[in-house]
Design brief:
The protein is mostly helical and about 110 residues long. The chain has one domain. The chain contains 4 helices and no strands. The radius of gyration is 18 Å and the shape is elongated.
Length: about 110
């Protein structure tokens, strides 16, 4: 596989799938501030994805048989789409605890 193909695949389905490259012109003495801010944004994004994944795993562990009939999560492209489908299914088909988990999933996605 060519290196360009590998980079393209990484940006579509790898760790950088939901990140974009940004180039800006800043004063040289403010460069480190921009790099630090970008690192903080990336860390927050990763933590949010991890929290979403943990909530989805818990929901699927508790309610997968009840909520996933006729739903194929593998066909959904990213974690946000999967979590939205799981949250809606939890709120429609689950009990009160499932509804609460679904609301937390939606709240986590909006934050």
């Amino acid at each position: 596989m060519a290196i360009h193909d590998r980079i393209k695949r990484y940006r579509v389905s790898g760790g950088a799938a939901d990140l974009v490259r940004v180039e800006v012109l800043v004063p040289s003495h403010k460069r480190q501030d921009i790099l630090d801010n970008a690192a903080t944004l990336r860390a927050g994004h990763r933590q949010k994805k991890q929290r979403l994944q943990e909530l989805m795993d818990r929901a699927l562990q508790l309610y997968s048989l009840r909520i996933l009939d006729n739903i194929d999560l593998d066909r959904l492209p990213d974690i946000h789409d999967r979590s939205r489908v799981i949250a809606n299914a939890l709120m429609e088909r689950g009990d009160a605890r499932a509804f609460a988990i679904g609301r937390r999933l939606l709240a986590e996605m909006e934050s």
